[in-house]
Amino acid sequence: MHAMNLLLVEDDEMLAHAVRTGLQRDDWRVHWVADAAAARLALSDHGYAAVLLDLGLPRGSGLGVLQAMRQRYDPTPVLIVTARDSLSDRIAGLDAGADDYVVKPFELDELGARLRAVVRRAQGRVSPKLAHGDVTVDPARRSVLRAGAPVTLSVNEYRTLLALMERRGWVVTRAQLEDAVYGGTGSIESNTIAVYIHQLRRKLGDDFIATVHGFGYRVGEERA
Amino acid sequence: MKYLPASLRGRLLVALMSAIVVCVGGWLCAYGTMVDRQQTGWWDSTLRVIAHQILLSLPGDVDAMSSARPAFQLPEGADGGSLDDRLANHKPRFQVWLNGGREGFRSPGAPAQPFRADLAAGFSDTEVAGERWRVYSVSDASGRVHVQAAWSHRQLDAERVRWLKLSLGATAVLFVLLALPLWAVVRWSLRPVMAVEAAIRRREGLDLAPLPAAGLPCEIAPLVESFNQLLQRLDAALQGERRFIADAAHELRTPMAALLAQSQLALEARDTAERDAALRRLREGVQRSARLAEQLLDLARLDAGGSHERRVALLDVVEVVVRDFDAAARQRGQRIVLELGACEIVGDVDMLGIALRNLIDNAVRYAGDGGRIEVRCATEAGRVRLSVADDGPGVPEHERSRVFDRFYRLPGAPGRGSGVGLSLVARIAEVHRARIEAGAGVDGRGFGVTLWFEAAAEPPAPPLGASRASDIADTRRRFLGDPIQR
């Protein structure tokens, strides 16, 4: 795997140094900036394979960088770094379009693994807009419209919808959905996919997602 | 308003005295006017009586008498001495006129010209020889004799002034006499308030003793009472904090000591293998201490108060928190099972995250290798039920009520827990007005914690027409009892 560019947005020098050293061993070329303004500049000048963004930047500027990226249709995968006790930050970051998160204090191994997973998922991603019925999904901007009006979806609801829309006309199994939403279940057995499907039906119309008993779910007419 | 004195007593006193002045002043005016009118009437009727009497007493041939003749004198002392000069001056004068403008006679002090030049009958006010007179003039039936009686206005005015001076003097005396008792009463009534003021002034620093509230008027009493209650709560909070700091310091000492010992071992290791092992143990110790420190911080922050409440989808919270434990659970071959519904409550996301984290952390640690952890969330009859259960060793029934106490660790259990986790969860439940219960875990084995929150109200229908149709369909299904199609 040839070296990939990573933008590290972190204001704590000691942590940044440790992360940089650790990631460089993993063949990442790390470009470090220490504040939001420098991050925006770097993003407009260069392209990166991934962005590691600390949400704890002063004055909430970290989230602002992420939001600006998505507004600009920048689909670069973003991994946010959040404080352990700030769940609301984490959820806000995911809702704003982050692909995954790590919690401080984190293990460097875990950081590396999540980065790789995020990049891998992004490579399989379809960027152009997806539409079915009166619903439009714009993955680059992470926005969902129904009859022109925006629909609010939680991050997992969105990922479920995206997975179904990307395979429109095909049946998507629960395992596939779980993989797309969580990046694999590991040790966790969950019924939440069913709940997300239910929520999506409530918000987008009952007929939007069809249940194919014994197999999974499908959006749109069955393709031969 | 800045001319008002600053103290309540001063204001009361000034207000009362001003009111008295105004009232008495007003009363004086009214009374004075009435008296004046009465007096004027009396003066006038006196003039008339005198004039009539004189007329009727005149001899019939008075017009034949000559004007130049000697007058009589009063004997010594008949005038009552000069008791006061004003009495001497306060006499009506009269003139008697005969036909043809001839003067008949007049009283001493009456001017030479007629009081009233045209000698017409009745009352009038005239000015003669530079003096003003109140005149009553009367003629006899045949018109040959005219009598005029008059008071000097100067006398009348002097009389009025005398009365005014008397009244004002009396009022002033009344005023002075009242001032002292008024001041004393005001001062006495406000004595409890002054006591509070003095108590506040005497206070120093962080004195939390309650203020004296005895005998306070009902306007101030609630204020002082609520202040005292505030002080009480503050005192309790401070005590709680002091206790907590003492406990926390105690709790942290042991893990810190272990860290020190382990690092010592690492330094003194004889070879790399031993050193690595020691460092690994040190690392575990650091993780444990870090966890305890974080929990203590959470606890302290909870105690400090302040939560940011909004609509929370517990589903999202559970999902995010549980995924954090995926790696650890996988390492130990554990299975985490989620049975979640779309549960919405009103609460603080961060706090709920902390509570869930502690519950799942406990479950994962106690479930042991290959263990099973179940997290359930469902909405039942307006309440949201959240439970975390494991199939580990569990907690005996008689200990269950105590697990939520701070720094309580299960006796006999190896010192893995910090004793803080569940007390955090209990405190967070309290902040969210949720019921919490400890009980059996998976399939009646192990340990489980259940929380009951009040479900958030249904959100308002979205504006789109199409989606309302689906909401209506949903509602119809709910009421008609059809199972929701999956």
Can you give a write-up of this model?
By secondary structure, chain A is of the alpha/beta class. Chain A folds into two domains: 4-123, Rossmann fold (3-Layer(aba) Sandwich); 130-219, Winged helix-like DNA-binding domain superfamily/Winged helix DNA-binding domain (Arc Repressor Mutant, subunit A, Orthogonal Bundle). Chain A is 42% helix and 25% strand. Chain A is built from eight helices and 13 strands. Chain A has a five-stranded parallel β-sheet with strand order 2-1-3-4-5, with helices on both faces. The mean pLDDT of chain A is 86. Chain B has 486 residues and is α+β, with helices and mostly antiparallel strands. Helix content of chain B is 51%, strand content 16%. Chain B has eleven helices and twelve strands. The longest helix of chain B has 50 residues, at 8-57. Chain B starts with 7 loop residues before the first helix and ends in a 6-residue tail after the last helix. Mean pLDDT of chain B is 81; it is low at 464-486. The interface between A and B is large, with 38 and 46 residues. β11 of chain A pairs parallel with β7 (335-340) of chain B, so a sheet runs across the interface.
